[in-house]
Amino acid sequence: MRGRPIMVLVVLALSCLGVTTAGASGEPPPSGRYRVQGPSDPRERSAVAATGAVIDQVEAASVVVTAGEAEVEAIRRLGYTVTTVQGPPSREASPFDFPVADSGYHNYAETIAEIDRIVAAHPTIARRSGYGTSAEGRALVVVKISDNVGTDENEPEVLFTHHQHAREHLSVEMALYILHLLTDGYGVDRRITSLVNSREIWVMPDLNPDGGEYDISGGSYRYWRKNRQPNAGSAYVGTDLNRNWAYRWGCCGGSSGLTSSGSYRGPAPESAPEVRAVANWVRRRVVGGVQQIRAAIDWHSYGEYVLWPYGFTYADTAPGMTRDDRDALAALGANMASTNGYAARQSSDLYIADGAIDDWMWGTYKIFVYTFEMYPITASPGFYPPDEQIRPQTARNREAVLRLLEYADCVYRIIGRQSAYCGVTRTP
Ligand code: 0X9
Ligand code: CA
Ligand code: CA
Ligand code: CA
Ligand code: CA
Ligand code: ZN
């Protein structure tokens, strides 16, 4: 009881100054964007990330972060200089939607409508189904592309996952691009026709619909990253989906246990319904004891990277990853990066992250999985490229997507080891 009136006065005074606090508005203080001058190697960057700040961009001797006040103070205590970074130029707002100038982006309803148009136009090779529900009750949707789309055939399966992070809207546009590429190209382009006939391709266009809608609904972009699941006993909302996967969850200082952090890992692995739903779906792709998904890309922005696992350790090889595994992952990563101009790296070359989807898919199932960080490289426009960039920056990944599909039957072929790992199984 003592001190309570003073707290109220402080809150009122801060409100008058335009400073939001948890007590005054019901919303915790928002995070800001900062340049951190100094960190120049994976260990120094991981120390910055371990404060709970989210690293958005990596440069030779600096990083750009999204961070709250306490995280900024912790970064300063590491001895680094912290300065603020400008947001995107303000664009005319459109309530609960992208700004008018960015209307070419698809909000959740528009994404579903576009998927339904694609499926309706190509019913023999495209099919939509649901795999669960988000924290706020939105339908989670997966689209299958293949010949005989209604039949589970014995064909290599490939999974594309998009939009774990709310503000990374370009990744949803990448999903729609892939769906158009494979359906509009079918029967027109021989290479695409043969890939659709010989693969089963799954696209999950929006793993985090609640976060995406929240990010665009405030009249200006919010830089939101997590989902919108309430946290018990905390005013801070949301779990970082890409720290919530059930492989070495929270193992290694690459995520936060604080609800205030942008990289909050959640109270338990798969505590986020959006993660749980994808994980259950992937587990159901084990048929006759064999995981059917052979290759995957998890789409993010920004930085222009092709990243391969692991992210939880600096080591190149680790339990479950042999030298041949690492070499095949790196070779296909470099091959794809040579087509889009991205930089190919092991994830932990940027900074340590644990509980990420790529580590889970490789660590659990040996799925050849990559994280793609799309356009741009720099903080401006960062997460919010103008919608004029949608077409060029999605088409830029056309060849990389097709190469992943081509190698999906045996990725070890890229290092000449197909006879060792993908020997033909004889039928009696
Ligand atoms: O930190 C992430 O989750 C991804 N970067 S982002 O800026 N889009 O948030 C990178 C994840 C790479 N994979 C692993 N580190 N395992
Ligand atoms: Ca525009
Ligand atoms: Ca739109
Ligand atoms: Ca088929
Ligand atoms: Ca199958
Ligand atoms: Zn991301």
TrEMBL record:
Cofactor list: Zn(2+)
Could you tell me the keywords of this UniProt record?
Answer: Carboxypeptidase, Hydrolase, Metal-binding, Metalloprotease, Protease, Signal, Zinc
Note the CDD domains from the entry.
M14_CPT
Instruction: Provide the catalytic activity annotation.
Output: Releases a C-terminal residue, which may be hydrophobic or positively charged
Active site (UniProt): 373
> What's this protein's name?
Zinc carboxypeptidase
Main function? Carboxypeptidase that possesses the specificities of both mammalian Cpase A and B. Thus shows broad substrate specificity, being able to cleave Cbz-Gly-Leu, Cbz-Gly-Val, Cbz-Gly-Phe, Cbz-Gly-Lys and Bz-Gly-Arg in vitro.
Family statement drawn from the similarity comment of this UniProt entry: Belongs to the peptidase M14 family.
Q: Which residues form the Peptidase M14 domain?
A: 104-408
Q: Which GO terms describe its molecular function?
A: metallocarboxypeptidase activity; zinc ion binding
Origin species: Streptosporangium saharense
Q: What is its EC number?
A: 3.4.17.18
Which terms under GO biological process does the entry name?
proteolysis
Q: Which SMART domains match?
A: Zn_pept (SM00631)
Q: What InterPro entries does the record point to?
A: CARBOXYPEPT_ZN_1 (IPR057246), Carboxypeptidase_T (IPR033810), Peptidase_M14 (IPR000834)
Region ranges (Disordered):
22-43
Per the UniProt entry, the signal peptide is: 1-24
Which EC main class describes this enzyme? hydrolase
Q: Does the keyword Zinc apply?
A: yes
Tell me which domain of life the UniProt entry assigns to the organism this sequence originates from.
Answer: Bacteria
Gene Ontology cellular-component annotations: extracellular space
